[in-house]
Amino acid sequence: MLKRHRLGFIGVTMLAAWIAAQDSTWGGVVAPAELVAVPRVVRPEAAADAKPVFRQSWVNPARHTPSAHGSAICALPGGDQLAVWYGGSREGAADVALFTARLRPGERDWSPPQKVVDRVMAAEELERVVKKVGNAVVFADRNGLVWMVYVTVTMGGWSGSALNVKTSHDEGRTWSRSRRLTLNPFLNVSSLVRNKPILTTDGRIGLPVYHELAIKYPQMLWLTPAADGTVAEYRIRNLSAETDLIQPTLVPLGGDRVLMLLRDQSDRRQMRAAYSTDNGWTWSEAAAGGLPNPDSAVDALRLGDGRILLVYNDAVRGRENLRLAISADAGRTWQPGPIIESARGKEYSYPCLAEGRDGRIHLTYTWERKRIRHVEFNLAWLGDGSPSREATAQ
Fold this sequence. Notes:
single chain, four-stranded antiparallel beta sheet
């Protein structure tokens, strides 16, 4: 009897989520006309930097927390890099909190971690019970406002999650109170976030999210900022009819085209790829992306020369290595590049990429579930992406 009630609850929740995401017009709301161009303000001395650069550093100090995972990074308008991650005794524990740290241009050491929110703080700000906090993404919008969208869970595991928003007017030094987003009309559960958004010229933010309760599939959360830095409006749209695909990564390709890469939780064990020709509003079916995916997160970034840089686990099982790959044809084929980390029985996962205003590429990722690792390199070091080599710090 209990199992039947549980299945009925899941079924009603899924039906409500599906109905909420089906209206393609949303009462007159239309697809964005254009995406915001990626700003690239390169200093003269950086543009002339033809010497390969590859550097490694730690985002969080040793033993800051027993476990660290789920980092994200963004380039701030002022030039700093801002990272966010969650740390505690273990993933999903009650003592987990979200932390931030920043890296100033030209420096190698990250600032000391700052706690942004834990379950007690989130419960007070949201005025509801919070069991745990999880994945967060951080990004700056076209007006310089910095956003953090993060996961809280009130009941159950990650499939019982909800999304919440904080904003910052001072590039992540202080944050607003949390606001909970109601994305599912029935109990508002099973919305998660992992990767950075696309920005439109009409001000909207297209944030890739995903649903995990019973059936797993990608979605797009369209946020409209208000003039005072709050959320004026938000809507959710389903992306693909296929299931077992989560954590979509979006890469603007120029014009109206956007590439979406997906983590594969099915037995296929292949990264999946889909395309949009209307700025992320509608999507093709997800097809095999040409690289393995051991049920692990990926991230990608369009470089200044038009190529796409990908970071992924190059394996069918396990997360024992982290590798770069390059595509010169909008993600249709990939050339494997340098291996960033590799060790038998260890984990290197949840990568996140950002491009600095000086053209340097920044990568953060989970290092053995203990710390957050940072890598910085330039295009001269990356080359054409063809050498199958391990990265060596300078």
